[in-house]
Specification:
The chain is of the alpha+beta class. It folds into two domains: about 65-90 and about 160-200, Penicillin-binding protein 2a (Domain 2), CATH 3.90.1310.10; about 210-565, DD-peptidase/beta-lactamase superfamily (Beta-lactamase, 3-Layer(aba) Sandwich). The chain has 21 helices and 20 strands. Strands 1, 2, 3, 4 and 7 form a five-stranded mixed beta sheet that branches. The longest helix has about 35 residues, at about 15-50. The chain is elongated. The chain starts with 15 loop residues before the first helix and ends in a 12-residue tail after the last helix. About 45% of the residues are buried.
């Protein structure tokens, strides 16, 4: 009987259902893969054709400026010490559209960022914005702590942060920048273009050591006499370099928005003031330089001057005729006015114009005050402006002109920025404004004031300081107020070979028991100059003249002796 054998390629009937099931599964997997692939393609099309970046990145590109430029350049002092620099620091921002638990997150951030208000952070996190700043310029430690929180809505962006290592010490000189690093005031504004390049620092003539001395001594005296404000300056009389400049009150340039307008106001260069008796320095120089007046010239200061509704009196009245040195030493308004009047109506005006008192001082700071002076100039203005009433200039004007009167007669350009020319020369080009002989006579008068006049408290053993006091009543609502004073002292040393002028001014000081109730320049400002000189001399290795004691020049010493012995009415010194 034959055996039945199935065909080799014919499947068994029971295998058909299993094969069909396998094909179905393969089809389903392929369909799922195709759907996934299409989804990815659609997403890519959406991202590339309809969006350039995800929403948070869009906001970041519009609102955050990456540091793709050099850091802002540094500002250094004359010795290379850092005064301002820029650092790259992280800033924190959030995508509030993906914030999950805003309240908890705000609480956590407030613990890490003590300067931030928790409710303010919460308001930002619930704003619904794709991009919003939470905190600018945070520390690396804060950045690490925030990263550790693990919130996906928080991100960081590096930004430039301006740093001032000495804080308020030279705030008015340096100025400050805005949040985007643009100079807003001071040197930061004047040299904004150079600083933005970041290639080389701006070097100033300021000496941070002297700046610190002046700031400390002036601040102490302002506090002691309860003054409203103060100004201090140190200038090289031969080059015009400003070694130190202080304006009080001052501010922290890191936080200029927290400072008042009064604190940000630079009284040293922008403020203009009626300087009072320090201006007698210039009217006396004008008289001596004219050749019409000499030390032996006498002017009657017996009685006040009456001119219309004006009366000119003396604070330290002697009620007798005075010679030129006496007028200067006793700071006689009457004598000074008559001396200026003897020159003619326009002589003093022309001299003041020559000294630069009728235009802003040429200094590199953008804050420069425009002087106030009589227009038109009348006879009464010659009288009052001779002792500093009716004309207002900035302290920079005062220092520049005073330097010319003691350096041999050359009006130099004040500067706060170091230059190669100034480094190489002690006698940069300037304009002659008085004769060398006039300069020598002015130095003698300045020495006389400190030796035995109103500036005795500016005396410093061994350094032969010369100077002039100033006490001006402030004009308020068109009237001069006897209780509102601007007290100042302008010192020069060493007076026999001047190198530096030092100015101290106190605005509205109040008399104290120690000063017997006086708030004049001799009591309030002169001690500041003495304190600065006593430290500046050794710092700059200026050898003291230990043999000088308190002597003034021989001629003036003999003159002073004659005055005290009652021999004052002769023309002593007329043949000089």
């Amino acid at each position: 009987m034959a055996e039945l054998t199935p065909h080799d390629n014919t499947p068994l009937p029971q295998a058909a259902p299993a094969l069909a099931q396998a094909k179905l599964r393969i089809g389903m997997v392929a369909a799922m893969l195709l759907i996934g692939y299409l989804a990815i393609c659609l997403r890519l099309v959406d991202l590339t054709m309809f969006r350039t970046k995800p929403a948070p990145e869009l906001a970041k590109a519009e609102d955050v400026k990456p540091l793709n430029h050099p850091l802002r350049g540094a500002i250094i002092d004359r010795n290379g010490e850092l005064m301002a620099t820029s650092l790259s620091m992280p800033s924190l921002y959030a995508d509030a559209t993906v914030t999950e638990n805003a309240a908890a997150e705000a609480h956590e951030l407030a613990q890490i960022l003590p300067g931030q208000d928790e409710q303010d952070i919460l308001r930002k996190l619930t704003s619904g914005k794709h991009f919003i700043w939470i905190a600018r310029n945070i520390t690396p430690k804060q950045e690490y702590a925030i990263n550790a929180l693990g919130h996906p809505d928080l991100s960081f962006q590096d930004e430039e942060r301006r740093i001032y290592p000495n804080a308020e010490m030279a705030a008015h000189v340096l100025g400050y920048t805005d949040v985007d690093g643009n100079g807003i005031a001071g040197i930061e504004k004047s040299f904004n273009a150079q600083l933005q390049k970041g290639d080389k620092p701006v070097q100033l003539t300021i000496d941070l050591r002297v700046q610190h001395i002046l700031h400390r001594e002036l601040s102490a005296q302002v506090a002691k006499f309860h003054a409203k404000a103060g100004v201090g300056m140190v200038m090289d009389v031969n080059t015009g370099e400003i070694i130190a400049m202080v304006s009080l009150p001052d501010f922290d340039p890191h936080y200029p928005g927290d400072a008042s307008d009064d604190a940000k106001f630079n009284r040293a260069s922008l403020g203009v003031f009626e300087m009072g008796s320090t201006f007698k320095l210039f009217s006396t120089a004008a008289a001596l330089d004219s050749g019409q007046v000499h030390f032996g010239s006498m002017f009657d200061a017996t009685d006040p001057i009456h001119y219309g509704r004006f009366t000119i009196n003396d604070y330290h009245a002697k009620h007798r005729p005075l010679t030129v040195p006496e007028i200067f030493m006793y700071s006689s308004n009457i004598g000074t006015a008559k001396m200026a009047d003897s020159l003619g109506e326009n002589a003093l005006k022309d001299f003041y114009e020559r000294m630069g008192f009728f235009e802003p001082a040429p200094i590199e700071l953008p804050e420069r005050g425009s002087p106030l002076y009589p227009k038109p100039w009348r006879e009464i203005n010659t009288l009052t402006c001779s002792f500093g009433h009716g004309i207002a200039v900035s302290p920079v004007h005062l220092m520049r002109a005073a330097s010319a009167l003691v350096n041999g007669g050359i009006l130099v350009t004040p500067t706060i920025v170091k230059s190669d020319k100034q480094r190489l020369s002690l006698n940069p080009e300037g304009t002659r404004v008085v004769k060398p002989q006039t300069s020598a006579e002015i130095r003698q008068l300045l020495e006389l004031v400190v030796a035995d006049g109103t500036g005795e408290k500016a005396y410093v053993e061994g350094y032969n300081v010369g100077g002039k006091t100033g006490t001006a009543e402030k004009n308020k609502n068109g009237r001069y107020e006897a209780t509102l004073l601007l007290s100042s002292f302008l010192g020069v040393f060493p007076i026999d070979n001047p190198r530096y002028a030092v100015l101290a001014m106190l605005d509205e000081p109040e008399g104290i028991p120690e000063s017997h109730g006086f708030a004049t320049g001799g009591w309030t400002a002169a001690p500041v100059v003495a304190a600065v000189v006593s430290q500046l001399g050794p710092l700059y290795r200026i050898a003291p003249d230990l043999d000088s004691n308190r002597d003034i020049t021989r001629d003036m010493a003999m003159y002073l002796k004659d005055i005290k012995e009652g021999k004052t009415l002769a023309s002593i010194g007329a043949d000089r």
